[in-house]
């Protein structure tokens, strides 16, 4: 079955860096677009970043542009999020989410599987 | 982009129906057919319940249904059950993705 397992979260000081990983299994990872989505404590969901199946197309939310970098290694079935210049407002649970496939034009604009998330806390 | 507007909470007794609205603009909900809904139980990951406004993934009970009119999408839960108590979020494609503010569904 489809599994997405995030890791790499933790406590980091403002201005610091962290690299999140998402290990995928149960499906052909290289066929799917992937995303990072976050949820601040007690708050709603916020889309963070998208990467196409080949890694050639990448998008970011304005709130993280220039500070976060999404990448993937299809040989290792893994998705990554490098987070630099972290701020208190980046504190959240970070989920990796797979986009549903099989639509004309590529993206189906729907997140059909989510990992359990990893907590990032930015605090001094 | 601003978050889509959802009611903070809705409630109903078992067996009743509840409807959650999700209001955006012509640049998101009104402009695309790509509205999805996610259910989230406390401490758990979101789960896809509805996609493309009104389609249900395999395994989602048919008491969950979706619709859209203009800039407002809706999720209806018919025959409310105790396990439906959760937070629900809408999401629309809008060049990027924008989520709703979230609605807590309480089963009385």
Biggest interface, chains and residue tallies? A-B, 20 and 23 residues
Mean pLDDT of chain A: 96
**Radius of gyration of chain B from the CA trace?**
13 Å
Low-confidence stretches of chain B: none
Query: What is the first-to-last residue Cα distance of chain A?
Result: 40 Å
Shape type of chain B:
globular
Structural class, judged by helices and strands of chain A? mainly beta
Task: Walk me through the structure.
The complex is a heterodimer of chains A (124) and B (108). By secondary structure, chain A is mainly β. In chain A, 0% of the residues lie in helices and 49% in strands. Chain A is built from no helices and eleven strands. In chain A, the strands form two sheets. In chain A, strands 2, 4, 5, 6, 9, 10 and 11 form a seven-stranded mixed beta sheet that branches. A four-stranded antiparallel beta sheet of chain A has the order 1-3-8-7, with no helix packed on it. The radius of gyration of chain A is 14 Å and the shape is globular. In chain A, 38% of the residues are buried. The model of chain A has no long low-confidence stretch (mean pLDDT 96). Chain B is an all-beta fold and 108 residues long. Chain B has strands at 9-12, 18-23, 35-40, 47-50, 64-69, 72-77, 86-93, 97-99, 103-107. In chain B, strands 1, 3, 4, 7, 8 and 9 form a six-stranded mixed beta sheet that branches. In chain B, a hairpin with a 3-residue loop joins strand 7 (86-93) and strand 8. The model of chain B has no long low-confidence stretch (mean pLDDT 96). Classes of the chains: A mainly beta (124), B mainly beta (108). The A-B interface holds A 35, 44-47, 50, 59, 61, 95, 100, 108-117 and B 3, 32, 34, 36, 38, 44-48, 51-52, 57, 89, 91, 93, 96-102.
């Amino acid at each position: 079955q489809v599994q997405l397992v995030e890791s790499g979260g933790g406590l980091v000081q403002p201005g610091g860096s962290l690299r999140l990983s998402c290990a995928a299994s149960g499906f052909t990872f290289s066929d799917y677009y992937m995303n990072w989505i976050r949820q601040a404590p007690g708050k709603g969901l916020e889309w963070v970043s998208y990467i196409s199946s080949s890694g050639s197309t990448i998008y970011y939310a304005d709130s993280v542009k220039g500070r976060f970098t999404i990448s993937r290694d299809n040989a290792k079935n893994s998705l990554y999020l490098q987070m630099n210049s972290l701020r208190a407002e980046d504190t959240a649970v970070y989920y990796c989410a797979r986009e549903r496939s099989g639509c004309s034009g590529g993206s189906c604009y729907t997140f059909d599987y989510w990992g359990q998330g990893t907590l990032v806390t930015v605090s001094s | 982009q601003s978050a889509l507007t959802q009611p903070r909470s809705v409630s109903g007794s078992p067996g009743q129906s509840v409807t959650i609205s999700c209001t955006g603009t012509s640049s998101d909900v009104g402009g695309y057919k790509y509205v999805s809904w996610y259910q989230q139980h406390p401490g758990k990951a979101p789960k896809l319940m509805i996609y493309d406004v009104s389609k249900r993934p395999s395994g989602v009970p048919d008491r969950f249904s979706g619709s859209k009119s203009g800039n407002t999408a809706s999720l209806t839960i018919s025959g409310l059950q105790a396990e439906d108590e959760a937070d629900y979020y809408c999401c629309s494609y809008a060049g990027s993705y924008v989520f709703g503010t979230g609605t807590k569904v309480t089963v009385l």
